[in-house]
Amino acid sequence: MTRFQSIITRIVVLHVVAIAATSILMPLALYWLLNQAANNLHRDALRSEAFIIGSFLRPQSDGSLSMDMPKEIRPLYSSDYGLYSYAVLDTDGHVLFSSQPDGKALFVSDESALNDWFIRRRSSGSELFGVTVARPVGEKMYYIQVGQDLAHRDVIIDDVVTSFLPHVAWITFPILLLLLLIDILIFRRALEPVREASKTAAAIGPRRTDVRLPEQTMPTEIQPLVHAVNLALERLEGGFRAQRDFTADMAHELRTPLAIVRARVDTLEPGPVRDALRADLVNMTRTVNQVLDIAELEAFIVATDAKADLHAVCADAVAFMAPLAVELSKTIALTGDSSPVWVRGQAEALFRAVRNLIENAIRHTPTGTSIEVEVTKEGIVRVMDDGPGVPAGDRESIFRRFWRRDREKPEGRGLGLAIVARVAEAHDGSVAVANRPEGGAVFTLKLRPA
Questions:
Q1: What is the pLDDT of residues 34-80, one digit of tens each?
Q2: What's the whole-model pTM score?
Q3: Buried b (16+ CB within 10 A) or exposed e, 68-102
Q4: How far apart, in Å, are the Cα atoms of 301 and each of 136, 298, 349?
Q5: Do 331 and 285 sit in the same domain of this protein?
Q6: CATH code: domain of residue 241
Q7: Is 406 found in the same domain as 357?
């Protein structure tokens, strides 16, 4: 089927195959039904003749049997005309009456006693169809054999046609349903490449711009459209790449000027102006670093065999953020499972996520409070604080980039939690926030165990 790229060609070819198969099967089925109908009519006709012959039998006072057949009916059973043949046998198999010139039975006695319908090929080459009917006459039972030469079978053609159509017309509807089912299967087979391309297209997103639709397996009519879509995806990927490169380059270029400005600020005389400038520079440096993290994470993909010790990652993040917590008169602790917790992921990216969760907790809790980082063996990290908590209406928004509840405050640009959400997505994990019953917020980062 791969050589036929056109949908129309595929449908026509498959239809031809289906019609060819149907044209073979339908005559066979109709022939079988017609043959069964003809045999049934033939059998009923012979049984009727057997009962007619039985009506001519008369028991005698001495126990014998006589046949009183009207003269006008005898030619029907004569050997010259040969439309029907008959023989009457007693229970011992002796022939009492026969239309055969040799006076013998039509069929052997053991066969006649066991079969209701049989065929015998005669020495002349013709085939004799017949039935055996048991009929009581007086107090005795007799077997009446009636046969017909197939050479004269055309006398029942009209009856066959009349009986055949009402009995087999119902088969037309199932055949049409079968053809409809075949058509559905044909169209599904012909459009299978289009469905596969739809599944591929569904996987394309801002972070999967490298995916392309397969062109070689597409039908001829759809190939130009698929080619145009792939060209558009290439242009889109180029735009995203240029945007990410610009963001990363800008963040890199800003780091050196910020470092120089901070060095010059440190040379100023101590006072409120220097402290304010230093605080502004710290916030700007933090924002630049977060922008650089975002740019790097846009193209970040976790390898299928990558794994990291979540407990070690959290320990490093707590140690890294401990000086900031102490500087702001807050405490930080690592709790939970102390043994290695292996999860599927990249240690550096997970470190960034946990670090941002801890930094967010430190910056949004009052002085003198504590931050707790809990690690469980199921691959879950909980960062709990004693702050004001997060309103229910903001719990979905806080993970969006540049979202801030109060834009009047200079601290933060709404990138820290966005980084956490991106890391969780890249690791097929999740991040959520809720309020603790005793007060404060708890951020839960769930990862897949390795």
A1: 777 777 877 888 888 889 998 999 988 888 888 888 888 888 887 66
A2: 0.46
A3: ebeeeeeeebeeeebebbbbbbeeeeebbbbbeee
A4: 95, 9, 10
A5: no
A6: 1.10.287
A7: yes
